[in-house]
Amino acid sequence: MLINMGQKLKVVETEKTKEDGNWFYSDVVKDHFFNPRNFLKDKNAVKDYDGYGDVGNVLCGDRMDMWIKVDKKTDKIIECKWLTWGCASAIASTSMLSEMITENSGMKIDDSLKIKPIDIIKRLGNLPKIKYHCSVLGDQALRTAIYDYFKRSKQHNRIKEGVQ
Amino acid sequence: MDYAATTYVDPEVKKEIDSYFTERFGNPGSFNYFGLEAKNAVNDARNRIAKILNADSDEVIFTGSGTESINLAIKGVARALKTKGNHIITQKTEHHAVIDTCKYLESNEGFEVTYLNVDKYGLINLDELKKVINKRTILISIMHANNEIGTVQPIKEIVKIAKKNNVIFHTDACQAAGYLELDVKRLGVDMMTINGSKLYAPKGIGLLYLKKGVPIEPILHGGGQEFGLRSGTENVPGIIGLAKAIEISERIKKTECKRLSKLRDMLINGLQGKIKNVMLNGHTKTRLPNNANLSFLGVEGESLLLHLNEEGICAATGSACTSRNLEASHVLLATGLKTEAAHGSIRFTLGRKTKEEDIKKVIRVMPKMVETLRMLSPIHVD
């Protein structure tokens, strides 16, 4: 017996679910999950990137690799490619983050370092509370990739102490 | 295809109980016409179930759920026998209703619990069981069939060991009820739990078969219903529905087992044939006819569920991403499965309305989903 897909269910909230969040995803999350933007289609095509970061591990249930390309003149991220093993929240968060930093001809590196998980969650039209931690991974992967770029381009002064 | 989560109510069952919500609404405890009518109906249901279980009718205790039945069995017997001993034996892939009840008794009431290991198929080792039984052992609780991987434990063998050592034996038969032996004499069990919501009966009804002479204390106190073991006004429609549902499932058990085993194997073989790196979890042979649990390596289960849901297919996963505590399935991990493979597990459980065309659809649509998700994944499985 399969579901009749003509039926769309609306989420019914209680005080408790408003506080804890529920399991249901927003349309934006679903859109990014089913149509992920900027993921690395060809795994061999990442030769001329400027920064790379990988975070997470499979034991925790998610793992992410990220590659960025930087326009040195404007100090903007012009390309961001990624691969994610994880749940729909992790995939949608990474996809949204990659869009946020590359839209409108790219985001300044200093601005993209200021992106917080909550900024991604807001753009996604919220995530279930229990899934907030999934959006942290993208933010960390991006930071790691940017710091990798600083190291490669000998801009060590831009690497902040205590931040990986 | 998530029948192990719950079933719909069989229309025959619904028809039989409808009038007990409206016209025949009496409280079996009332001394009047309606009360007697309800009491008769409950007694009749008890007799019918006892006949199927090959038990006496006063050995059937109705509860509010499978979980409550398990709590009554374990806490009830443990507390009644606490002067005799304080050791309980269970195993690692039990439902949380068993594991968490045992943990509660460990941390709050001074009981010691042994959680037996399982092999890669989810089977316990009988020699290990023999070894851990000691003079203080008062209760063994081992499920008949597992709810996640469908592995069927050798209950009759386990009962022999329990009997030889004079230890009371309980089995959680919630998943087994529609498919395996229910005759308590042939099984030899002292206590057995059954749950309506897995058997095409309404939700909110369960039962405990309790052999005469087994020492037990109630966990609910009040009006003294169910021979003083489960106070609370009887769920009359639920009780009648459970009786009808068990009768129906016994009637069609043989043909359903045959039909579903065929569909289950078709699903497993079809998916393993069409998609690379798909592992079967649980036993190849001694498993429930309606259970197929597969790990799609390199893919995370929640993502796969979302894709399946979009195609109108309901399933379940042992991935941490859908659990409340964000931990991967304790059942899959107990079988020695790597965390990554546990995260990539999907459980299909078939039921009465599952048709061959449904299985074919899953086999048709899944390869693309897995391919899409593997394309996004930084983990290489080849």
Can you walk me through this structure?
The complex is a heterodimer of chains A (164) and B (382). Chain A is an alpha+beta fold. Chain A has a single domain, classed as Sufe protein. Chain: A (Alpha-Beta Complex). Helices cover 37% and strands 18% of the residues of chain A. Chain A starts with 14 loop residues before the first helix and ends in a 12-residue tail after the last helix. In chain B, the strands form 2 sheets. Chain B has a 7-stranded mixed sheet, with helices on both faces. A 4-stranded antiparallel sheet of chain B has the order 8-9-11-10. Chain B has 2 domains: 11-249, Type I PLP-dependent aspartate aminotransferase-like (Major domain) (Aspartate Aminotransferase, domain 2, 3-Layer(aba) Sandwich); 253-375, Aspartate Aminotransferase, domain 1 (Alpha-Beta Complex). In chain B, helix 8 crosses helix 12 (356-376) and helix 9 (301-310) packs across helix 12 (356-376). Chain B is an alpha/beta fold and 382 residues long. The chains are: A alpha+beta (164), B alpha/beta (382). Chains A and B meet through helix 2, strand 2, strand 3 and helix 3 of A and helix 9, helix 11 and helix 12 of B.
